[in-house]
Design goal:
The protein has 547 residues and is α+β, with helices and mostly antiparallel strands. It has 6 helices and 31 strands. The chain has a domain at 379-547. Mean pLDDT is 85; it is low at 1-25.
Length: 547
């Protein structure tokens, strides 16, 4: 006891130091343990979060099913008995599945068995005109409705029609009616009776103009040709009511027209075989309403006004007559005009009304068509008659008028015009109707066959014969049914309106199916590659949309 006390007296702080040291060591150890626990907690939380994220990704990827992509059939048919077809085809995405669909019109007593609709359902006499939208994937009927006693014209893809968010179709019916139909559902947005007079013809296409009645929806201008003049009607796109009064143009009733957009100006060119007239939209609106239009986007072009006779509205572009077609051609800044008459094709610069180039050609047998023979260089497809049942097809560069490629074919007068599809190499595929025969071996007596040919500029000496049609073709069109894939063509065959009813068929055919089964024709004796290699290369060709 004495020893302990004496030791404590000799070293009075030793015991306290030991306690302090013990407490310090214990505190450090607790902090170390605490830090280690915190790190482990954060690491555990990270792994738990990562695990939960993986579970969510797994659920969305495998457990929750993704929307199925529609599988497009390579070929589908839709047949209608005891019917006639109208010369109308429209390609639009009706059901918003990113696959283009087909809208067409036919006349019959009853519709398809899918909808089981009759003319009597709409209070129409039988037979009547039906409008139908068919699925591009399989030809199924998306909607179908009796629309009018007869159809004069139909146009689809008009935005805001009826004030709807989705585009619409405008139907010009006989006798005298206008109808706006929702493209998605086929439901009628509005229907208005119209007094176009007797023995009228609608000049097509119908033109959409800016909102002139300030109701927030674009409006419509319709030109009606009578025996000796053309009448002008402006209608509200929202409700179909006429805006202003009926205007009358000092233009022959046999005229056709095109619309040109020249910067902030909009002009309508009416042409007959020997005359050409020009009216600004501002003039047409003022004549119909008696008021000056106050939209800044619709002005008159000073250069054009100098060349338009203010009394007759004659426009002097060319001295020679025989005009068969006027076609607007995209230029670098403005749209130019291609004038095709009985002797030549002439490109006019609409900025200064000067001739850019001329090309000798005989009587045109189809409306000029745009395509790309060289990458990103716009070309024009021209078809001209060189003798009865014989035509020449030319692809012409739009800027210079130089002929890039030509082909002679036997051809019927009622054969469809050509079609083009854009390819991924910034050129075009050209689809042409006719009958090819080896030069020097043409048959002049019999009626030519209707054959569809495929041409692509990568092989300038190759034609692919895709199909041989013996039926009467009412309408033909080609389109990219799915973006960057599924290039197709559509054939509407059967009797036309005004003929005896019969079997009407609508067919969609995937282009690659015909390429794989096609007959290859060498246009010259030079065969660089084998037939199989050429056909396979054209089969693998990719298409794309120029939008």
């Amino acid at each position: 006891m004495d020893n302990k006390e004496s030791e404590a007296e000799i070293h009075p702080l030793k015991t306290e130091d030991v306690k302090v040291q013990e407490n310090h060591d214990s505190s450090v150890e607790r902090r170390i343990i605490s830090k280690q626990s915190s790190r482990l907690s954060r690491l555990a939380a990270f792994f738990i979060s990562l695990f939960l994220c993986l579970i969510i990704v797994f659920a969305f990827s495998f457990i929750i099913p993704c929307p199925e992509r529609p599988v497009s059939e390579r070929t589908w048919f839709r047949n209608y008995n005891n019917a006639v077809a109208y010369q109308f085809l429209s390609i639009e995405d009706v059901n918003e599945d990113k696959v283009q669909d087909v809208i067409f019109a036919f006349k019959a007593s009853n519709g398809s068995s899918s909808f089981n609709r009759s003319c009597l359902d709409e209070g129409l006499p039988s037979p009547c005109a039906f409008v139908a939208a068919l699925s591009g994937t399989n030809g199924g009927v998306l909607w179908e409705k009796p629309a009018a006693e007869d159809i004069e014209w139909m146009e689809c893809g008009i935005k805001q029609l009826g004030g709807a968010e989705s585009p619409g179709c405008l139907i010009v019916g006989k006798p005298m009616s206008l109808m706006a139909v929702d493209l998605r559902t086929g439901e009628v947005q509005w229907r208005q009776p119209s007094d176009f007079g007797a023995n009228y013809t609608v000049l097509t296409p119908v033109s959409v103009i800016p909102d002139v009645d300030s109701d927030g929806v674009q409006d419509l201008i319709i030109f009606i040709a009578t025996e000796d003049k053309i009448k002008t009607f402006i209608y509200s796109g929202k409700n179909g009511k006429q805006i202003g009064t009926t205007g009358s143009l000092n233009v022959d009733g046999r005229a056709r027209y095109i619309r040109l957009n020249l910067g902030s100006s909009s002009y309508f060119l009416f042409y007959t075989e020997n005359s050409l007239y020009a009216y600004s939209l501002k003039d047409l609106y003022s004549a119909a309403t008696g008021m000056e239009i106050k939209l800044p986007s619709l002005e008159q072009d000073p250069q054009w006004e100098k060349n338009i006779d203010r009394t007759t509205h004659h426009l002097s572009l060319l001295s020679s007559g025989g005009i068969r077609y006027l076609t607007k051609i995209p230029g670098r800044s403005w749209e130019n005009v291609l004038v095709v008459n009985s002797e030549m094709a002439t490109m006019i610069n609409t900025h200064n009304l000067q001739t850019l180039w001329t090309l000798n050609m005989s009587r045109a047998v189809s409306e000029p068509l745009l395509g790309y023979y060289k990458p990103d260089v716009l070309g024009i497809v021209l078809e001209s008659e060189i003798r009865p049942n014989r035509k020449k097809v030319m692809i012409v560069e739009s800027e210079s008028g130089a002929v890039q490629w030509d082909l002679k074919l036997n051809s019927r007068t009622e054969s469809p015009g050509p079609a083009t599809l854009s390819t991924a190499d910034h050129r075009s595929t050209f689809l042409i109707w006719g009958e090819y025969q080896v030069p020097g071996n043409e048959t002049k007596s019999r009626t030519p066959l209707q054959k569809l040919y495929f041409f692509h500029p990568s092989y300038t000496n190759v034609l692919l014969e895709l199909r041989n049609s013996t039926d009467q073709i009412v309408a033909f069109n080609a389109a990219l049914f799915e973006r960057s894939r599924h290039a197709c063509y559509v054939l509407l065959r059967g009797p036309q309106a005004g003929e005896e009813p019969g079997s009407v068929s609508l067919m969609k055919r995937k282009l690659k199916e015909d390429i794989s089964e096609s007959r290859l024709i060498w246009l010259s004796q030079v065969a660089v590659d084998s037939e199989r290699y050429v056909r396979d290369r054209l089969y693998r060709m990719r298409f794309h949309s120029r939008v």
